[in-house]
Amino acid sequence: MITNDGVTITRDLLLSGNTAxxxxxxxxxxxxxxxxxxxxxGSEFNRKAVTLIALGSPQVGTTFRVxxxxxxxxxxxxxxxxxxxxxxxxxxxxxxxxxxxxxxxxGSEWRFELNVEEI
Length: 119
Fold this sequence. Notes:
The protein contains one helix and seven strands. By secondary structure, it is mainly beta. It has one domain. The strands form two sheets. Strands 2-1-5-6 form a four-stranded antiparallel beta sheet.
């Protein structure tokens, strides 16, 4: 779900064309239902810079990708939420998605891709 801050980020992106408005992805263990008024994840435990920003066909969409492994989230709760942010530690949250728990176990690796598309 795109948050109210996400709408502002989209406006700024469209006006400037600068993709730096979305620079990081975070994972967490929050259980709250996504809501447009949220300003962060429910229970964030790791945030990383987006490692790939792939622009789709002309003006169709963008894919944001981040890879994590069990060493980077050692001792963490199961992953139940993900979001895109505009900063390494604070910043505005663009969106938040919640899903069934992904267990954190030794030797595990995860790739999260969030696709933002024009409809």
